[in-house]
Design brief:
single chain; 265 residues; mainly alpha; two-stranded parallel sheet; 2% strand
Length: 265
């Protein structure tokens, strides 16, 4: 299956004197993204429904699930930027998506905030933070993987004993036990839809709220704890020694950013 406007885009690439192997590489990146979008979005699969958040989630997926290097992530961003710039400049989409993504992966020293976990009790008391975001942060702080979020029910959180946290997680679960639901009480079909609900709170919390990045903040908070042995870490993170070695190596390459919210209240 082709991605939208593939023929037009490739003709334009040729007019820019791009080498055939370069065009092939760009096409592969776009194909990978488009297939990801088709599988993970519950919106109509049209190019006009792609948002900057979908691109963020895709890059997040490559980093968290595929363990792609920074240089590889940059390659994907560069290829997608070229494609979406073409669409915007030729009036095939109305919005230039990379306005909100400027420099998303080009910083070769990733910044991860882990201190928010220590401030979770305070965060959940803030009225300006949405219920959905509070639920996500609680689950992340207790080690739940975002890949399980859409299937979690009130019976899956027995390990969380804090009554305030449990009250938040079980809000609106009387008729439907799913922790995350639509406004009409139905199942949320894609993690990207959940992500769209929580991203606006980044303006207040001032750290990345994409599920993959939040999961990494939990991972690095544990790996950064000298009191935990390798066996304890592998159990906590549900990973093997190879993955744990990867996380330890990455911890030396990232910058642990402080928790610095931007509240106006």
């Amino acid at each position: 299956m082709n991605f939208p406007y593939q023929r037009n885009f490739n003709e334009w690439c040729k007019s820019q004197n791009l080498a055939p192997q370069t065009i092939t590489s760009i096409n592969q990146s776009i194909f990978y993204f488009w297939n990801y979008f088709l599988k993970n979005s519950n919106l109509e699969p049209t190019i006009s429904n792609v948002s900057s958040q979908d691109i963020r989630s895709f890059i997040d997926y490559l980093e968290q699930n595929q363990h792609k290097t920074i240089s590889t992530l940059n390659k994907y961003v560069t290829h997608l930027k070229k494609y979406f710039s073409f669409l915007y400049n030729h009036q095939l989409v109305k919005k230039y998506l990379f306005t909100d993504l400027h420099g998303y992966t080009f910083d070769r020293t990733p910044h991860i905030c882990i201190d928010w976990i220590k401030n979770l009790k305070e965060i959940i008391s803030w009225s300006e933070i949405s219920l959905t975001t509070k639920k996500v942060l609680i689950l992340i702080a207790y080690g739940f993987d975002p890949k399980t979020f859409l299937d979690l029910t009130s019976s899956d959180i027995d390990a969380i004993k804090n009554p305030d946290y449990r009250a938040i997680l079980t809000t609106n679960t009387d008729d439907n036990p799913l922790i995350f639901q639509t406004k009409t009480g139905k199942e949320i079909s894609a993690l990207t839809s959940l992500t769209r609900k929580i991203v606006p709170d980044k303006k207040v919390l001032n750290f990345d709220l994409t599920p993959g990045k939040l999961r990494l903040s939990y991972v690095y908070a544990q790996v950064n704890d000298p009191s935990l042995s390798d066996l304890q870490l592998m159990e906590l993170l549900h990973c093997n020694r190879k993955s744990l070695t990867y996380y330890r190596n990455q911890l030396d390459k990232i910058k642990l950013a402080p928790f610095n919210p931007k509240r106006t209240a």
